[in-house]
Design a protein that fits this description.
It is built from 5 helices and no strands. It is mainly alpha-helical and 109 residues long. The protein has one domain. Helix 3 runs antiparallel to helix 4 and helix 4 runs antiparallel to helix 5. It is globular, with a radius of gyration of 15 Å. The model has no long low-confidence stretch (mean pLDDT 94). It comes from Corynebacterium minutissimum. This is Membrane protein.
Amino acid sequence: MGIMHFAKPEPFESIIPPQLPGSARFYNFTSGAWEVVTGGLLANPSTRKLGGLSAFALLAAVWPANFYQAYKDLSSGKASTGKKIYHAVRLPLQIPVMRYAWSLYADKN
């Protein structure tokens, strides 16, 4: 997904909460680059521990955008059943994914 932040930035920029200081483009490109780097760290066994920490921090950093997207979609009153299910699953699912990322970092091996 990281590369898509650069190839098609509009969908990503549309979910950046407007309350954040700075431009949506800055947050989009920063998170896209962070995703690419994190993927590389996770793919390499020798850097996987650092990749776990990076993934945990990335997921925490992008959670406000995911929450904002859910709020925006659901408060419009136009969200399809599929969108409602998507958001109902996606937001809570981030918690076990973050726990797994943290476990990669905390692994003693």
